[in-house]
Automatic annotation (TrEMBL):
Any Pfam family the entry gives: OMPdecase
Enzyme Commission code: 4.1.1.23
Keyword Hydrolase: no
The encoding gene: pyrF
PANTHER family associated with the record: OROTIDINE 5'-PHOSPHATE DECARBOXYLASE
Pathway: Pyrimidine metabolism; UMP biosynthesis via de novo pathway; UMP from orotate: step 2/2
HAMAP family associated with the record: OMPdecase_type1_B
CDD domains: OMP_decarboxylase_like
Residues of the active site: K63
Organism, as annotated: Zhongshania marina
Assembly and binders: Homodimer.
The protein's name: Orotidine 5'-phosphate decarboxylase
Binding site residues for substrate: 12, 34, 61-70, 121, 182, 191, 211-212
Length: 233
């Protein structure tokens, strides 16, 4: 179990005023936050600076996927911003991931956690064949998680459904970051491989990424606190 709530709130907003309204209610002791492609494309590094000023640990979820030189430079740029966690697509391969890890060496203990994205939680096994991947989601997640660990990464993004099997394949301290979290009864949206917050923790997730069940709730703070309470925080 992490020292504070394992919750990472996905700040997927297009309208700055809506984000600010939520941030006024959030407290860094309650959760960490995630800046994804939408928010970063709209507001850039300023949004990360603002979140840092407010005291939040920031997961910069830009899922870099490029040649090793470009990915390493992008990850170093993220480290310059002082983010807590950054990620790359594990399907970029070992050369890309080891280059990204090497780029972070210069930051010492201030380096962000480097996480590999395995199979998006919006995908089901059936869809993998159409992108040339043989086998089911679990097999592909296992393959990419092992490759990420061999490349020196700190963990992977996967669905909570894969966590218990992954724990048998990867080092003990390897971090498993799980989106696709849906409290019982909430809408799935485009998520396919889902789990409830308490099941995800029981199966061994280190961090839970939760977006719409909090951000689109009528009372985001109450929804966040309800999830924390269900996990004992
Ligand atoms: O496999 C992945 C990787 C990243 N995500 C991101 O997590 C959040 C989930 O938001 P919800 O609203 O709770 O569905 C979102 O920012 C995704 O970009 C993911 O869902 N799955």
């Amino acid at each position: 179990m992490t020292e504070k709530s394992p919750l990472i709130v996905a700040l997927d907003f297009a309208v700055r005023a809506e984000l600010d309204a939520l941030l006024e209610k959030l407290d860094p002791s309650l959760c960490r936050v995630k800046v994804g492609k939408e928010l970063f494309t709209l507001y850039g590094p300023d949004i990360v600076r603002d979140l840092h000023k407010r005291g939040f640990d920031v997961f910069l979820d830009l899922k870099f996927h490029d040649i090793p030189n470009t990915t390493a430079a992008a990850v170093a740029a993220a480290a310059d911003m002082g983010v807590w966690m950054v990620n790359v697509h594990a399907s970029g391969g070992m050369k890309m991931m080891t280059a990204a890890k090497a780029a972070l060496q210069a930051y010492g203990k201030d380096a962000p956690l480097l996480i590999g994205v395995t199979v998006l939680t919006s995908m089901q096994s059936e869809e993998l064949a159409s992108i040339g991947v043989g086998g089911d989601a679990l097999a592909q997640v296992g393959r990419l998680a092992s490759l990420s660990a061999e490349s020196g990464l700190d963990g992977v993004v996967c669905s909570a459904r894969e966590v218990s099997v992954l724990r048998t394949l990867i080092p003990k301290d390897f971090l498993l970051v799980t989106p696709g979290i849906r409290p019982a009864g909430s809408e799935l949206g485009d998520q396919q491989r889902v789990a409830t917050p308490s099941d995800a923790i029981a199966m061994g997730s280190n961090y839970l990424v939760v977006g719409r069940p909090i951000t689109r709730s009528a009372d985001p703070l109450a929804s966040l606190k309800e999830i924390n309470a269900s996990l004992g925080y």
